[in-house]
């Protein structure tokens, strides 16, 4: 398949979302070349504007590191979709839109007339993507949830934390990001389907189901065939035989994972075939993982502590042993691989200044470099979108902004 120089050139996306999941979905589409129009409510805007990090630790809704990264390459307008005027303009935007992404509750969308049943007939080619904690159908569909609730309900928390303590959740709201990735992928498939059918469709993404399917569901067979539950074991991840752990080395940490016996044997050989590894107690890798992993850690750590993480990584790579160094942010910024792929890019924002941002998590061989647009100021593109495209006069825009700000 020949990939266009700009993958999603010509695709138009409208985002009526908040915080992380919907904005990350549309960020992925924007970074691939789609035009994304982000709708924010007047005054406060997207909730992520209230979260840092902030330059010099000074809170400012226009300098939020979270908002700036999630919303680069987008156009931004302010509307209140709770009002009749806001709803009318939203529908006017959707006339020329390919993908409509939202993470608002279904009842809220229905009250605005922006739910899929209301949009399906007038916008038959529209692909609508909904991202919610529990999906829009089923017994929990009307429940609200935070990241903690969706991660726990999705089953991932059973394997995280100390066995004698309460379970923990995955850090940094990963469920919202992974739901956003799933939503973006599903939207692309729906756009491909539209080429044949001429019709859009509704995509219902449940963050809980993303957790259950991507992280927990594929371990069901491990439980059925081997009886491994994946219950939390502190730093030792369940589901695999020993080792599946991050351990200290001379200058930090490395992560060792050897699901295959041959990989473990090669690691033992790399350590010089120590005498302890010949004992039956250290040949039962399942028992090592589930019953006395700390004992085996104590035997391996002295070898690791004599070497830095790059030495260990290169030696494991040569022996085909799964291993990964654990990098801090400074090391990531200077990593040769990421530099060679130009992963980090500088973006000059009119208020936040020139900052370094992570780039897209992929590269296509025939994808050309495109300029990167900084995240929009609140209402930055109101005139461009609402006046120049939709035909509002400047006076009508001023009246609209004034009425919706109160």
CATH class of the largest domain: Alpha Beta
The CATH architecture category of the largest domain equals 3-Layer(aba) Sandwich
Residue share in helix: 25-40%
Q: What letter string, H or E per element, gives the SSE order?
A: EHEHEHEHHEHHEHHEEHHHHEHHEEHH
| Domains, number | 2
Q: Sheet bearing the most strands, described? A: 6 strands, parallel
What do the pLDDT scores average to? 93
CATH topology of the largest domain: Rossmann fold
Quantity of strands, as a count: 11
Number of helices: 17
CATH superfamily label of the largest domain: Crotonobetainyl-coa:carnitine coa-transferase, domain 1
> What is the overall silhouette?
elongated
Rg (CA only): 25 Å
| Helix-and-strand structural type | alpha/beta
Concise structural overview:
This protein is an alpha/beta fold and 406 residues long. It has helices spanning 21-31, 65-70, 84-94, 106-112, 116-120, 147-153, 174-197, 207-216, 220-226, 261-270, 285-290, 293-305, 309-318, 329-333, 336-340, 382-389, 394-405; strands at residues 12-16, 35-40, 74-78, 99-102, 127-132, 202-206, 244-249, 252-257, 323-326, 344-349, 353-358. The chain folds into two domains: 12-214 and 340-405, Rossmann fold (3-Layer(aba) Sandwich), CATH 3.40.50.10540; 244-326, formyl-coa transferase, domain 3, CATH 3.30.1540.
Describe the structure.
With about 400 residues, the protein is an alpha/beta fold. It folds into two domains: about 10-215 and about 340-405, Crotonobetainyl-coa:carnitine coa-transferase, domain 1 (Rossmann fold); about 245-325, formyl-coa transferase, domain 3 (2-Layer Sandwich). Helices cover about 40% and strands about 15% of the residues. Strands 3-2-1-4-5-6 form a six-stranded parallel sheet, sandwiched between helices. Strands 7-8-9 form a three-stranded antiparallel sheet. Helix 1 (about 20-30) packs across helix 7 (about 175-195) and helix 6 packs across helix 8 (about 205-215).
């Amino acid at each position: 398949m020949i990939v266009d120089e700009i993958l999603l050139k010509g695709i138009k996306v409208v985002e009526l979302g908040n915080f992380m999941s919907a904005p990350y979905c549309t960020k992925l589409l924007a970074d691939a070349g789609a035009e994304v129009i982000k709708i924010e409510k007047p005054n406060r805007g997207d909730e992520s504007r209230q979260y840092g990090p902030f330059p010099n630790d000074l809170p400012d809704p226009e300098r939020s590191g979270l908002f700036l990264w999630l919303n680069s390459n987008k156009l931004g307008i302010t509307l209140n979709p709770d009002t009749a005027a806001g709803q009318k303009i939203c529908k006017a935007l959707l006339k020329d839109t390919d993908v409509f992404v939202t993470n608002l509750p279904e009842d809220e969308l229905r009250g605005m007339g922006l739910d899929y049943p209301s949009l399906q007939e007038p916008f038959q080619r529209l692909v609508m993507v909904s991202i919610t904690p529990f999906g829009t159908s089923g017994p929990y569909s009307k429940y609200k949830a935070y990241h903690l609730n969706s991660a726990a309900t999705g089953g991932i928390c059973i394997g995280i934390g100390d066995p004698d303590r309460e379970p923990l959740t995955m850090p940094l709201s990963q469920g919202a990001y992974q739901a956003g990735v799933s939503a973006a992928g599903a939207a692309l498939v729906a756009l491909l389907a539209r080429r044949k059918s001429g019709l859009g469709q509704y995509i219902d993404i449940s963050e809980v189901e993303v957790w259950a399917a991507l992280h927990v569901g594929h371990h069901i067979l491990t439980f059925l065939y081997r009886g491994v539950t994946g219950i939390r074991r502190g730093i030792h991840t369940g589901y695999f035989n020993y080792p599946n752990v991050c351990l200290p080395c001379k200058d930090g940490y490395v992560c060792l994972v050897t699901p295959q016996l041959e990989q473990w044997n090669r690691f033992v050989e790399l350590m010089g075939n120590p005498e302890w590894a010949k004992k039956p107690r250290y040949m039962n890798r399942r028992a090592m993982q589930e019953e006395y992993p700390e004992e085996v850690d104590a035997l391996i750590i002295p070898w690791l502590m004599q070497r830095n993480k790059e030495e260990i990584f290169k030696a494991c790579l040569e022996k085909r042993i799964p291993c990964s160094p654990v990098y801090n942010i400074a090391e990531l910024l200077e990593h040769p691989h990421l530099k060679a792929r130009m992963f980090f890019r500088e973006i000059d924002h009119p208020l936040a200044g020139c900052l370094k941002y992570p780039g897209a998590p992929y590269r296509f061989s025939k994808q050309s470099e495109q300029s990167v647009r900084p995240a929009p100021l609140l209402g930055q593109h109101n005139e461009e979108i609402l006046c120049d495209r939709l035909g509002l006069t400047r006076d009508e825009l001023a009246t609209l902004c004034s009425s919706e700000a109160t």
